[in-house]
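F.,

This is the one I mentioned.
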């Protein structure tokens, strides 16, 4: 899968996109993530990418022309299944969307910054907008990194044990059950005996009950969505 990210601050993405699972997926050729500096398509000798908003509001707005030129440049090289914009008023990002988009071949993610982007970009160049939560970040780079990580980790082969990704929280609409490791008894804090019983039927039932109970207690809204 190829992911092209457009940003005015590519340095922010260096860390998140070059660590852990997402780094290994790129080394294996499972994911191909390319970060593009919008300033390379900026206007004039100063490579301008932003300007003051019409109407007198404070802040700066990313201009339509550099974004248009960069997206067209990318599209001239290959076909894209989706162009995404990270925005606080977009659709809420969730595991279902991560699973769905992981089946695509090529996507573009445009990171917002400053006061946002010229609305004509959103009207004419973007297919879908996503928000990672009801809060505002300084820019869309961290949101893009979150989206990339959640997509890449479910790509076949990205994780050594693929079953691990399939049992994560939200994959079945529930929170994951508790997990434990050695020692079985630490300071009197004991691992539930059923997990050491070797009876996998009972273990599976315990995990299902725990997942449901935790979801009812911590995230009842997930059950209401069903």
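My design for it:
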């Amino acid at each position: 899968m190829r992911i092209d990210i457009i940003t005015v601050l590519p340095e922010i993405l260096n860390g998140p996109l070059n660590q852990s699972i997402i780094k290994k997926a790129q080394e294996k050729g499972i994911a191909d993530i390319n970060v593009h500096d919008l300033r390379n398509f900026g206007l004039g000798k100063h490579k301008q990418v932003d300007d003051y908003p019409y109407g007198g509001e404070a802040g700066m707005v990313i201009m339509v022309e550099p974004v248009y030129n960069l997206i067209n440049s990318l599209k001239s090289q290959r076909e894209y299944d989706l162009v995404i914009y990270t925005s606080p008023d977009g659709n809420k990002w969730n595991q279902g969307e991560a699973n769905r988009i992981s089946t695509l071949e090529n996507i573009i993610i445009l990171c917002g910054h400053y006061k946002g982007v010229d609305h004509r970009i959103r009207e004419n160049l973007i297919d879908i907008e996503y928000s990672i939560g009801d809060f505002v970040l300084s820019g869309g780079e961290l949101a893009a990194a979150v989206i990339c990580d959640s997509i890449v980790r479910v790509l076949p082969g990205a994780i050594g044990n693929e079953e691990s990704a399939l049992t994560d929280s939200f994959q079945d609409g529930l929170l994951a059950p508790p997990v434990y490791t050695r020692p079985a008894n630490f300071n009197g804090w004991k691992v539930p005996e059923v997990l050491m019983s070797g009876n996998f039927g009972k273990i599976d039932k315990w995990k299902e009950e725990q997942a449901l109970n935790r979801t009812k207690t911590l995230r009842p809204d997930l059950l209401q969505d069903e």
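The helical segments are 20-27, 64-75, 95-101, 119-124, 141-152, 162-166, 200-218, 220-224.

Talk soon.
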